Predict the structure.
Amino acid sequence: MRITFLLITLAMTASAGPCLVGSLSDYISLGAGGCSLGATPDAPVVKGFTITPGLFGATPLDPGFVTITPIDLPSQKGINVAYSTTAVLAALETFFQFQITGPNLVGVAQTLASAAVSGDGAVTGLTNLCRDGSYAGAIFGCSGTDHSLTVVELDGFSLPMDSASFPVSSFFDVFFELTLDGGLAGTAIGASSSLVFTQTPEPGAWALTLCGGLALAGLRYRSSKQTSPSRSNQ
């Protein structure tokens, strides 16, 4: 069963091109095929980006003004969402849904950076994740296990990171929201929020790496044995 799932996952990944820096509109246009967060066969795929009406009456931002940057590190895969604007006597937001699929996902973290507020302004990032299941609607009716993350910047208070860990998983239905709220007498200036999943290597990858290391050590040993007599005869 594990091998069958891995083959299916790799086939899905192979059909998706690499994720590039682009607008939310660009990512929406990828549709169900999505894009791959890396070049390795087990790289996760993000797909199905759709705009969702906000929850708190904020004004939705044009998705063309929201920038998404893929994150592809050895064991950290995800996206960074950013936009640059200022909210005064208003609340502005980007709120969208997408899915991520890939083997051996064991944790997730959300961070908030480049946010500036004054008065009663606030910058807030909220993420809801349905692990190994799907939402029936906007952040409710998860058919799997529900997780939530919150990051916030206030005048005098900051919570720049939130994280969660979980058993090995392969699919998440995700709602992501980044809101700038100028409040009644403040400002909130555009921010950047990253959502990054931790992915552990397949056992086969560890074995392949170990075999490669042993083979290299063997070659070095044989090489040293072959050169030793010539050195002793000099």
